[in-house]
Design brief:
By secondary structure, this protein is mainly alpha-helical. The chain has 3 helices and no strands. The protein is flat, with a radius of gyration of 14 Å. The structure holds protoporphyrin IX containing FE. Protoporphyrin IX containing FE binds next to α1, α2 and α3. Pfam families: HTHP (PF11534).
């Protein structure tokens, strides 16, 4: 697979958050490579508050890593 994660460094916290989102979504993509299955399951989680809360939690965990890697953009 072509490299898609070459650095954890980002210029701004917002870009860092977007990287965290990418990591979360890539995690799903590696876990379930079948796009047709992801499309089917999307309909369920998109309208389920608990699933969306868990998805945001995964993003938040990745954001902790990205923020630490950027020394909290200090
Ligand atoms: C769309 C995030 C889990 C399937 C999206 C979008 C976001 C997102 C932000 C809408 C924006 C965009 O299309 O770029 C996440 C996060 C997850 C997660 C953070 C958990 C860590 C899942 C799971 C599935 C899934 C478990 C299914 C197995 C999809 C699909 C779309 C989508 C198929 C595309 C919908 C469309 O383009 O119409 N996801 N997602 N996601 N998600 Fe997730």
């Amino acid at each position: 697979m072509a490299a898609w994660l070459t650095s954890l460094q980002t210029d701004t916290p917002q870009e860092g958050f977007e990287l965290a989102l990418k990591l979360a979504r890539k995690g799903v993509g590696y876990t379930q490579p079948d796009a047709e299955v992801r499309d089917r399951l999307r309909q369920e989680y998109a309208e389920d508050a608990d699933s969306l809360t868990m998805a945001s939690q995964v993003v938040a965990i990745h954001f902790q890593t990205v923020a630490a890697a950027n020394n909290y953009w200090k």
